[in-house]
Amino acid sequence: QVQLVESGGGLVQAGGSLRLSCAASGSILTLDDMVWYRQAPGKQRELVARISANGRTSYAGSAKGRFTVSREDAKNTVYLQMTNLEPDDTAVYLCNAIISTNGGVWSHYWGQGTQVTVSS
Q1: pLDDT of residue 102
Q2: SS3 at position 74
């Protein structure tokens, strides 16, 4: 069984910064893409940032230049450094990872999410 646990959310003023973490644990053989999504009340879930196994990154337009995604495979962890936060960044941030477990089965896994609230 694999679990993803996000942390680092909170309340911050506009212009501030937060660093989110998502740690994977369990019977992990290989981590592939690791992705941050967010979902605000009444809105669809949207992709924020992605990092591939070889470190290639991609971002939503709203995140470019402000957010940085990174990973530390030795800790099975992905990070999202968020700077110059805006009230529109308020959402639950969720981590998704493509992971192969013992036996070579690849699956998507989701964390439970961490709340980010940006006040104006």
Answers
A1: 79
A2: helix
